[in-house]
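Field reference: "sequence" (input) and "structure" (output). Example, HAD family phosphatase:
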Amino acid sequence: MKKLEREITFPNLGTFGADSMFWDMDTTSDGRFSVGKDGVNAVCATGDKKVEFVAFDDKTFAHVKSELGYPAYYPVSGVDVKKPLKAVLMDLDGTTIKSESFWIWIIEKTTASLLGDDKFQLEEADLPFVSGHSVSEHLSHCINKYCPDKTLEEARGFYFKHTHFEMNEIMQGRGRPGAFTPTDGIKDFLLALKSKNIKIGLVTSGLYEKAWPEILNGFQSLGMGDPKDFYDAIITAGFPLRKGEAGTLGELSPKPHPWLYAEVAKVGLGIDFADRASVVGIEDSGAGICSVRLAGFAAMGLADGNIIKSGTKALCYKYFENFAEMGGFLM
């Protein structure tokens, strides 16, 4: 595997060159597809190597890898943007609410507990792998790298212990300062969408018990009332599967898989796949950009997340520095 130095066209996805930060590969990491065999023209991976693309003459497949051992292949559909928009689908962490540093801190505290080392700190290189994916994906990365003798079950136990304590502290007004801060310009952007009768769907890979207090706290800060009344649809990764409790699907199908965005659009907002050009997804993470794109929607990238570091900017239909800039394009 080496950095892409030539231009390669992937049907329904785009043409990518040296500035894409993609990796040029001879075969997919699972060995299923190889260049020059069975009609395969090229294989590339995103900068963070989380998603691989396989190019044929008339189609492209995306291989979403998995820390948990359940990868998947998806056909890639072409995207476009047709105005007026019917719906805007928006990520929560880092896009709507600035909270990534808080949740990374929780992952760091969890890993410290696993190691029995209160002074443990994550490295800069860990950041693309501990944000934007599912809790179990984040924890699996840390286990594999820092404490391979520990189990995911042990990690999840510490994670929810820390999460429950910190979320209760926040709801009681005693929490970590600046844990949840609305993104600059988000209120005006949301209200502008409403004024245009554009439906708004909120999408997060976060489990409900961590996502809902964050959403509620953010709306309280903005003075925008009950988020359930404001959003047309909200989807989270559901409820954690734990011994003695019933969980919901969420840990194996989060971003960068397409299902959260696909479900909020089709089931939550009632928009058919054939009308996907009238829908856009807004994200600040590489995993989220891939999720939006694989769901068949144009991905709007927002600065300050890990899109650049994860090497996924090339998958953005457009990339914006702030919501004022994005609003000027979308509306």
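The longest strand covers residues 51-55.
The radius of gyration is 20 Å.
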